[in-house]
Write a structure and sequence with these properties.
This protein has eleven helices and six strands. Keywords: DNA-binding, Phosphoprotein, Transcription, Transcription regulation. InterPro entries: CheY-like_superfamily, NreC/VraR/RcsB-like_REC, Sig_transdc_resp-reg_C-effctor, Sig_transdc_resp-reg_receiver, Tscrpt_reg_LuxR_C, WalR-like.
Length: 227
């Protein structure tokens, strides 16, 4: 099957869900919430963003629920790739972070909703149904503050991290910050060690940083890894 092939639509109107979170207990709890609904069914689970992409390529799913903070690929990175390879799949971000930077990055990545884990039992089911109606979903009370902060930042001319780095540089930055060597990064991304080294040098120069520690701190601020 080609990577971009679209699996057959679901029968009986059931929304087939791909759930991705690196914590098994969280996945279990979220699955309990979703599977209790007659129109929702979790049909695939992933422990990181890269696994979620592979499952989405081959499994028949209608909706992906992605945690933002995951190893290998974050939920934001996975959402961008998923939007490219499976544009028919709706995307929801599930996160513990009440953070406007993550929220706007999620929208730019192709997500149609942003749900806080702390109120997932209240909001997640409604968010899934809204996503399948092509309607955006935000947790109550967040919209005004998020838009105000975003407009204030835009008026000040501040630039978001995802506008500074290319997708490949972001991938290299995340892996560097996770402690991988140049050889390990080269193997994971199927590029040469020299290419990895060039990306690292470009990152340091572009961001005005000095070393791996500075890159790690930047990756934490950008939401690529957890502190």
């Amino acid at each position: 099957m080609p990577d971009t092939a679209t699996p057959a639509p679901a029968d009986s109107g059931t929304i087939r869900i791909l759930l991705a979170d690196d914590h098994a207990l969280v996945r279990r709890g979220v699955r309990l919430i979703l599977d209790q609904q007659p129109d929702l069914e979790v049909v695939a689970e992933a422990g990181d963003g890269a696994e979620a992409i592979e499952l989405a390529r081959t499994r028949a799913v209608d909706l992906a629920v992605l945690d933002i903070a995951m190893p290998r690929l974050t939920g934001l990175q996975a959402a961008r790739e998923l939007a490219a390879v499976r544009p028919d799949v709706r995307i929801l971000m599930l996160t513990m972070h009440d953070n406007e930077q993550y929220f706007f990055q999620a929208l730019k990545a192709g997500a149609s909703g942003y749900v806080l884990k702390s109120v997932a039992d209240r909001d997640l089911v409604a968010a899934c149904r809204a996503a399948m109606r092509d309607e955006p979903f935000l947790y109550p009370g967040a919209v005004t503050a998020l838009i105000r902060n975003y407009l204030d930042r835009a008026r000040r001319g501040q630039e978001d991290p995802d506008q500074i780095l290319t997708p490949r540089e972001e991938e290299v930055l995340k892996l560097v910050a996770e402690g991988h060597s140049s050889k390990e990064i080269a193997d994971l991304l199927f590029i040469s060690i020299k290419t990895v080294q060039r990306h690292r040098a470009n990152l340091l120069q572009k961001l005005g940083l000095r070393d791996r520690l500075d890159l790690t701190r930047y990756a934490i601020r950008a939401g690529l890894i957890e502190p």
